[in-house]
Amino acid sequence: MRRYEYTFLHTAATLLLLSWVSLMPVAQADALQTFIIKESHQAQAITAEGSVEAVQQSAIAPQVSGSIAILTVKAGDYVKAGQLLARIDTRIANQQVISNQAQVAAANAQLSAARQEYERKRRLHEKQYISQAALERAESDYKTAEAQTKAQLAQTNAANVQTGLHTINAPYAGLVAEVMVELGDMAMPGKPLLVIYDSKALRVVVNVPQSQLAQIKQNAGIQVSIPAAIESERSLTGTQVTILPTADAVSNMVKVRITLPENLTSLRPGMFARAMLPTENAGAQGQLSVPASAVVKRSELTAVYVVNSKGLPQLRQVRLGRKQGHNIEVLAGLQAGEKIALDPIAAVNFK
Predict the structure, then answer these.
(1) What is the set of domains in the chain, with CATH numbers?
(2) With CB atoms counted within 10 Å of each terminal CB, which end of the chain scores lower, N or C?
């Protein structure tokens, strides 16, 4: 009796499940959206990522030490060439200049006395009133005083130059990127006070594997994408390409500099950038690509649903390359002219 009840219940459940499946919507042939694989002969390129940097950027550091007495700029300020940026306290330097000037005056007085003494003894020697040795001693004293005066003048001039080094001016027109000190901080020789860069001349620096350098076209226009820029400056064409002559020993990457058009308003050093570097064999080989939405990824399987001659979708493994916008490059698994399903879920339910 129990076995009969079990068989009855199992049969009823099966019938219920079949009736529920029959009520499910089934994708029709005319509802399955497809995409025909076409071979593209667009120029091949190496995609490289990097960042924006200024062609001219300087960390401004003083050559003398002292307290910062004047600080006229802040980060984000535009400065003109020669504009005052900061001034270091000059009181000690000024006292040194005054001291040196006094020493120069004393040296000049000694030089004048030594010259007069030499001239007097020279006349006495002409009249043979003094010996040759006495004249030579007077001449030696005069030359010594003259040398000491010149040395003192040189020291004074150096002190004047030292005083001028307390004033920090902009070496060129540009934008203040960073200010690392505050008013009253102690400035030290070689320790940067601020960083400025020329905002009118920018470039992109990307890292390229050294194995791909020989493929890059030197004289071809390079498309550069900068997502963070304003819409009119997100896609640019490089005006000049420079491949640096050294490679990183750890990553085996080589830096490639791409000069950008001048007077860009929204770009800043450090922004992310992507460059498409045309290769020498551009256009020699066709390229296949599929919409990214058509790709199925299950664990280690990457596949698409290929629609056969009977109109039925079949899952096929593919090997993909780099992503280009909404499409993905296909390296293996598909041929031009084949048809794939755009919606993998609809392909699974297709009957």
Answers:
(1) 28-42+285-348 (2.40.420.20), 46-55+199-278 (2.40.30.170), 59-90+166-197 (2.40.50.100), 91-164 (1.10.287)
(2) N
